[in-house]
């Protein structure tokens, strides 16, 4: 995927969450285990959102790119983030957010609690 498309998708997803009352804690947080696209907070829950953006709809859903190996890396990266975070005692949730163009805008499909630790 090209970088500008991915950045646009992440910005669209961040706006989606903010409109729903979430606080954006971090964006593109890098750890040695990998990158966390969006880290958000609401109702004593830290949400780690993996954003998958596509330039057009296709037969394979973007969320299908978040398989078991990717899930393990995200969980490890989240654990690293939480070690030094004031939110370390909060609940944790992993979402996968699909961002696909639609009618001149973007369609956002959030799979809340897509996988667990």
From TrEMBL:
InterPro entries the UniProt entry points to? Restrct_endonuc-II-like, tRNA_endonuc-like_dom_sf, UPF0102_YraN-like
User: What does the sequence similarity comment in the record state about its family?
Assistant: Belongs to the UPF0102 family.
Entry's HAMAP family?
Answer: UPF0102
Q: State the PANTHER family in the record.
A: UPF0102 PROTEIN YRAN (PTHR34039)
Its protein name is UPF0102 protein INF35_00950
> From which source organism is this entry?
Gemmiger gallinarum
